[in-house]
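Appendix C: a fully annotated inverse folding record. The material below is reproduced so that readers can follow the format used throughout the book. The structure is listed first as C-alpha cells, followed by the designed sequence.
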C-alpha cells in the first residue's frame, strides 16, 4: 500500500532529551551541591519510565499545561534531594529548545520525505508549542503540519488526534504511516487503520533508526 503521508511522534522519536542529567548535575554544582551523575540518571530515568505507563497517561497530562506541570514536577520530585529548586529549573529546560535535540538521522529523513513529496506531520501528546523548538534547529520548514494534543484537547490513544492529522493532509488511513516509540499512545494508530512503526528505545546521541521509514515509503 502506497504511503502518502508520514505521521511522526516527537519526543524520543524525532528529538531526544540527552542533556537532562548533565543539566541536573550542573544545576546542583552551581547551587553548592555535588550530585553523582549515575544516581541522577537512575532517578531521572525511573521518572521517565513511570511517565509512559497507561495509568499516568490517562491522567490527561498532555491536554493541559497546568496538569503537565503538576504531573512532571511530581514525577521528578525525588530529584529535589540533589538540589532544592532543580525540579522547576528542569521543567523549564525540558519545555524549551535547550532541553531537546534532534536525533542524528532526523534531519536527513525529513529532508528525504520532503524530496519525495510525502508530507511529514508531527502528531504529539504535548501541551506546549513545538514549532519554536523545530525552528531553533531549522527543521520547521520540513514539517507539513503540527497536530498537538494541547491545541486539540485530545491525546493519541483517543484516536481523534490521528484523524485530525489525516484530514490535514487529505490522506486516507490506509495510505498513512505512523511512527513512534510508545505502544500505548503511538501504537493506538492501528485502531485508526493506520500502519504503524514502533521504534525500540534509542541510545543518546546515536541514530534513531528513522531510515526504516524510507524503506516503507519506497517499498
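Designed amino acids, in order:
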Amino acid at each position: 500500500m502506497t504511503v502518502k503521508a508520514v505521521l511522526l511522534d516527537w519526543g524520543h522519536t524525532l528529538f531526544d532529551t540527552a542533556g537532562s542529567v548533565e543539566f541536573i548535575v550542573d544545576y546542583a554544582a552551581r547551587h553548592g551541591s555535588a550530585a553523582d551523575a549515575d544516581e541522577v540518571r537512575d532517578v531521572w530515568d525511573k521518572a521517565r519510565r513511570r511517565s509512559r505507563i497507561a495509568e499516568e497517561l490517562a491522567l490527561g497530562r498532555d491536554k493541559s499545561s497546568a496538569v503537565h506541570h503538576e504531573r512532571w514536577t511530581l514525577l521528578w520530585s525525588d530529584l529535589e534531594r540533589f538540589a532544592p529548586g532543580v525540579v522547576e529549573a528542569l521543567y523549564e529546560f525540558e519545555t524549551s529548545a535547550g532541553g531537546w535535540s534532534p536525533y542524528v538521522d532526523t534531519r536527513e529523513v525529513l529532508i528525504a520525505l520532503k524530496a519525495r513529496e510525502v508530507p511529514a506531520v508531527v502528531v504529539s501528546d504535548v501541551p506546549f508549542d513545538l514549532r519554536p523548538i523545530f525552528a531553533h534547529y531549522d527543521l520547521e520548514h520540513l514539517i507539513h503540519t503540527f497536530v498537538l494534543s494541547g491545541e486539540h484537547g485530545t491525546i493519541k490513544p483517543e484516536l481523534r488526534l490521528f484523524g485530525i492529522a489525516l484530514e490535514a493532509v487529505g490522506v486516507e488511513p490506509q495510505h498513512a504511516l505512523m511512527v513512534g516509540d510508545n505502544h500505548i499512545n503511538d501504537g493506538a494508530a492501528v485502531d485508526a487503520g493506520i500502519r504503524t512503526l514502533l521504534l525500540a528505545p534509542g541510545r543518546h546521541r546515536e541514530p534513531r533508526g528513522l531510515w526504516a521509514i524510507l524503506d516503507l515509503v519506497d517499498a
